[in-house]
């Protein structure tokens, strides 16, 4: 790992005025505060068609997975859709596998128009563990998202602090000793 941990943030929202993207940008401020470097991998800039295992190098998959693989930590952000995470993020993760996530530090952020997006965070945590990632215990849930931002910044100081902390933890734990592989990872033959 380089002296300055490199963190990539992947927002699972394609909306122009995405609260997920705003939240991850703020987490990247925390990355920089902690001495790391950060980059947003905006899925709107990648051609990632629905995953087909017979065409795993479709579109921009190779360029996308290379950037994820080169990172020391990954931040995943998603709007909550039907109690889970978004299909653009699912597709992006489907192009990845153990090469991108095994022993990688991953932080999670989820946004909801209504109440807390806890199930989206739980589902992402489960997927990351199935890829043997080390998921940061601290996570960010942004409920009632339209009320949480003013002029592109957090209106709530506590939520802003939690989001900055997520970025700082991505740097702090970038070189943490990985956990032994999970049972889920051992059963995840499709990701190999």
TrEMBL record:
It comes from Halorubrum rubrum. The keyword Metal-binding does not apply. This is NADPH-dependent FMN reductase. Transmembrane segments: none annotated. Its EC number is 1.-.-.-. Belongs to the SsuE family. Isf subfamily. Its cofactor is [4Fe-4S] cluster. SUPFAM superfamilies: Flavoproteins. It comes from the Archaea. Residues 5-146 form the NADPH-dependent FMN reductase-like domain. InterPro entries: Flavoprotein-like_sf, FMN_Rdtase-like_dom, NAD(P)H-dep_reductase.
